Amino acid sequence: MHDPQNKTIKRVVIAGGGTAGWLTAALMKKLLGQAVDITLIESEAIGTVGVGEATIPPIRLVNQVLGIDEAQFLHDTKATIKLAIKFENWKTKGQSYYHTFGAPGKSMAFCHFHHYWLKARQQGHKNDLWVYDLNYQAAEAGRFAQINAKDPALELPFAYHFDASLYAQYLRKISEEMGVVRKEGKIARVARFSDSGYVKALHLESHDVIEGDLFIDCTGFKGLLIEGALGAGYDDWSHLLPCDSALAVPSERHKDTAPYTRSIAHDAGWQWRIPLQHRNGNGHVYSSRYISDDDAHATLMGNLDTKPLGDPKLIKFTTGRRRKQWYKNVVAVGLSSGFLEPLESTSIHLIQSAIVRLIQLFPHKGVTSSLTDEYNKQSELEFEQIRDFLVLHYTVNERTDSAFFNDMRSITLPDSLAHKIELFKENGVLQREQNDLFLESSWLQVLYGQGITPKDYHGLVNSVPDTQLNNMLTRLLEIKKEPISKLPTHDEYINGMVTNYKRSMS
Prior knowledge:
Elements lengths: L10 E5 L2 H15 L4 E6 L15 H8 L4 H8 L2 E3 L1 E5 L7 E5 L12 H10 L11 H8 L17 E3 L2 H15 L2 E4 L2 E6 L6 E6 L4 E3 L2 E4 L6 H6 L4 E3 L8 E7 L9 E5 L3 E7 L4 E7 L6 H10 L10 E4 L3 E3 L3 E2 L2 E3 L5 E2 L7 H14 L8 H27 L7 H6 L6 H13 L12 H10 L16 H16 L8 H16 L1
Helix pairs in contact: 1-6, 1-9, 3-15, 9-10
C-alpha cells in the first residue's frame, strides 16, 4: 500500500456515524460520485451527543443538494420551522430580544435601516427595532409559510428544529442508496505508515482491517484519529467561553408549537428549549466553576415548562478548536474538530461547512501542504468568527445579580470583537469580516439587544426630511405586518406538509 502523499485519493474512510459522519458521507458521495469509494465505520454501542437539534438557514441548501423532499424530511425527522432565537434574561433579568434570520426594515444604498430608525428614536419614535422585521412578526404570531417574495423586505428566511438522531438515520438511508458502505464495529487500533506518520488503516475489535487513502474523523470529543493517533493539539478557549458542561433532557411538547428556539439565561449559563413535533428538546449549558452539577440539574428541571420524558444526560466539554483540523491524511469533522457551544445553533453548520471546504479542496492526486494549509486557514477563521459572535452575548450584559455574568463583562476580548463593539457604540457602524457566517443584521440584533445603543447615526440619514422619515417608517411597518394575517399557523403548516406526504405515500 502506497503512502497517500503520493497516491490518487480513492478510498475515503469515515470513522464514526451520527450527524457528522452521515452528513459527510452523503455530501461527499453526492458531489464526488464515483471519484471516491466511501466506507463508514460506526458502532451501535456508541451513543451520540445529539444536542444539535436547532439549525440555521444554510441547512436548506444541503437538503436541496441532496435532493431531499421537504415534506418527507419534516415527517421523518419530526422537524419544525425555526425563524429566530429568542434570548431571555441575557441583558437583564426579565428583558428579552430576538435574533431572527431576517433583518429589521429595509436598508438603503450605503446606509443600513437602523441608522434611520436611530434618528427617529432620538426624535421620540416609539416603535422597537424588531417590529420592522417580518421574521419577528411571524415568530410572535406563531405563523409560517414559505413566501416567494420579489421584494427582499418580504422574504421569510428559515431553518429547522429536528431530532438529530432521526436526521442521522435519514442521511444514512440516502448515503447507502448512493453506494456508501457501512461497517459495524468499534475501532481498536489506528495503523500508520512508519515514514510519514499518515494513517494506513483502522483495525476493528472484530479483527477486520479497513484500509483507506483519506480518513475523516467523526469520533466526537475524543478525536480518536486526529488527536488520539496524530496528536494534532487543541486550542482551549474556556477563558473566553467558560461554560464546560451541559445537561440535556426531552420533555412533552406544547399544544402550540412556537417557530423559534428559546435561549434563557440563568445564573451560571443558559437553557435551551427546542420545539419538535413529538417533544421539546431542553438543556442547560453552564460553567462548573460557578455552579455544581447537582444545582445545574435542579435549575434545569425546575425551569421545564412541560413534563420531562427522561433523566437529564450530562455532557462535559472544553470550548475551543483542534489546532489542525486537517493533519496528514486525517480531516476532523464535527465535535472532533472543536466545540463551540450551541448558543447560536452552529454545530451542524460547522459540520456542513467543513465537508464543503474539503470537497472544494479535495486532494484527488494526493495530500499536499498547500491544500491542508488552506483548509486549516479557512477553518481557523470560521471558528474565530463564530467564537467572537458567541462571546458578544456574554460580555455585553447588565446582569449584576450573577457572579458569572459579572465576570464575563470583564474578560479580555479578542481585538477583532473589541473593534466591532467600539465601532457600533460610536456611530452604529456594523463591521463584518469577509466570509463571516453572521450577516450585519445578526450583529445588529445582538449588539442592540444586549444593550448597546450607538451614540450617533450615519450622516446620510439627515438628507431625509423628518416628515418623510416618519412616513417611511409608518409605510414600512404596514408592509411588514400585511402578510402575517394571511399566513397559516406554524402547526397548520407543519401538519399540512406531513399530511400531504402521508397521502402521497398511501
